Each structure stands twice: as C-alpha cells, then as structure tokens.
Amino acid sequence: MEQRLKAEAERLGFAACRIADADAAPKSAARLRAWLDAGHHGDMLWMEERAHQRGSPRGLWPDVRSVIMLGMSYAPGRDPLALAGAPDRARFSVYAQGKDYHDVVKKALKALARWLVEQQAREGEAGGLKVFVDTAPVMEKPLAQGAGLGWQGKHSNLVSRDHGSWLFLGAIYTERALTPDGPERDHCGSCTACQAACPTDAFPAPYVVDARRCISYLTIEHKGPIPEALREGIGNRVYGCDDCLAVCPWNKFADHAAANKAFVGRAELAAPAIGDLLDLDDATFREIFSGSPIKRIGRNRLVRNAAIAAGNSGDPRLLARLQALVGDEDPVVAEAATWAIGKLSA
C-alpha cells in the first residue's frame, strides 16, 4: 500500500510523500507552548486559542493513527533576491507569485484521499481520514520532520535535501496504521546563513522566529501600523520575505524540475513598480489578485506595505502618489503614506 500511495502522490504533482506515526513529533506541544508564552505569535491569536489541538495530531482528532505528509515543490525559476537592488520595484514572496497554494495543494490532497478510500474498499479495510493544508491547527513542519520529509531548519521552516526550502506542505490524517518512514535528522550544522540574512533580526535564537519582527508576518498577518523601527528593514518587500529561505545552502540541491507548474510566477508580479501599487483601488486590487494568495490581505494592507516601500525607495517621484493617500479612508494607509512622505522629503 505504502509504495502505491507514494506513486499516486507523485502522479498528482507532489514532489515528496512520507508517512509518520501520529505521535512522531512528541516535543511539538512543549515547544509551541514556550513559543506562545514568549509572545512570539504576535496578533495571531488563533495559535493560542487552538494550542491544545495544534500540539499533537490526536489533540485535533483522537482516532488518528498515521499521518501522511506531502510536499509540493515551488522552487523558483529565478533568483528570489534579484530585486534587492531595485528599490523602485516591489518584491512579492516567491510562494505568492503563482496560483494560491491552498487551492492547488488541497485539490491534489483530496484526489489522493479519494484514491486511498478506493484502495481501502478494495482491500476490505475501513477507516476515516482528514486532509489539511495550512488553515487547520496542524504542526506540519515537525510532523514532516517526523515523517522524514526534511528537517526544521534554523529559520524554522522545513528544509529538504532534495528540494531545499521550497516545499508547500499538506497532511492526511488517517485511522489506518501505515508503515512509518522514520524521521529526518537535522543537517544545518554550524551554518547561520538564514539568521544573518534577516533584515529585521527576527530570530532571537536558532530555530526560533519572533513573528513580531518577521517581515512576512508584518506585511501579511499584521493589520495595524507597522512599527517604525522595523520599516527601513522592510525595504521594497510588499508581501512576505524570502531572504532566510533563499540563502539556505541546501537550495543548491533543489530539484527545480519537480516544481509544480501552477506556482510559476505571473509576469505582472515579477517586478511591478511600487508607484503602480500605490494607485490601487479595491476593485482593481481584486481583479489583479484574483486566484492569488495575495488577495486575502485586501487592498488596504497591500497599499500600506507599498507606501512603506515607497518611503524606503528614495524616489521623490512617488511623492505625488503618496500625497493622494494621505486622505485615504483607511487610517493605517494614510499614516504609512504620511510617514513615507516625511522619509522622502527629509
């Protein structure tokens, strides 16, 4: 069953498929609790509210016996750091430049789940299953390490010897006992490249990220004004940040041919002008970002981010566009525009 399962997963577009027992990540609950107690989750209150379910698979579903962890590659076709020296251009995280991974991965997971149900029926077996992609209280990364898919690197994301740092993760919980593959060991060694690359010093220690200082959190999850002390570090990033992932030495072994074509970056998101993002109204935003994970943050948050990037650009030609945002109906956008004007006028 296990080998046929992995073959079917590959046919459906997954670059990796491994199996773990439901208790394959026994330290997850304690690490999560310590992270929450330190306040590293910022405004992500759902992390706290469902910690009892997130800590272990059985906390969410008592009947689960095995966890099938799957990885779908989104290895980029171009250098994720190429726009670092182009302050007039906006940088979107690699994962968000193609189709929404929630939709793509979940579709493949559901297809694999249907296959599993059919196989069980043919074998006279019974047992329920559940599929998860990022939105449920599931500790995907520790479980992926427990299944042998990779290991949690010092940047806290999963690293694979075959796919580097570029894997979307999905999980299937099943009541059926499957043969586990065994865990992957940590291969980070003495490397601290990801820690050193962070523009806002978001790593208080190796393997620990303080979301309150992380550009991905600040530009995507955080709804209010971004702390002024962190704005310069954001640079021209308007949605997420790839720096800690991009510098990982294991990326040189990444199998770019395995990357799912659904995640190929859209041309209009490769190097958009910051000024064009400042002009977005809600209708245009929705039209441009339909089918993209970027759509979920809404026009106001993206324009807030673009205003901060404009302030960091050093380009006085953006002043008129920023001035038009000073009276924006969203006070957070208006504040960011006012700050950017002050920065460019200094």
Short structural description:
The chain has helices spanning 2-11, 28-37, 45-49, 51-54, 57-60, 101-122, 140-147, 193-197, 215-221, 228-234, 243-246, 274-278, 282-288, 298-313, 319-323, 331-345; strands at residues 16-21, 66-73, 91-92, 129-132, 151-152, 158-159, 167-174, 237-239. It has 346 residues and is of the alpha+beta class. Helix 14 packs parallel to helix 16.
Written description of the protein model:
- The structure is a single chain.
- This protein has 346 residues and is an alpha+beta fold.
- It has two domains: 2-88 and 99-174, NADH Oxidase; 196-345, no CATH class.
- Helix content is 39%, strand content 10%.
- The protein is built from 16 helices and eight strands.
- A four-stranded antiparallel beta sheet has the order 1-2-7-4, sandwiched between helices. The chain has a two-stranded parallel ribbon with strand order 3-8. A two-stranded antiparallel sheet has the order 5-6.
- Strand 5 and strand 6 (158-159) form a beta hairpin.
- Helix 14 packs parallel to helix 16 (331-345).
Task: Give structural attributes.
single chain, 346 residues, 16 helices, two-stranded parallel sheet, alpha+beta, 4-stranded antiparallel β-sheet, 2 domains, NADH Oxidase
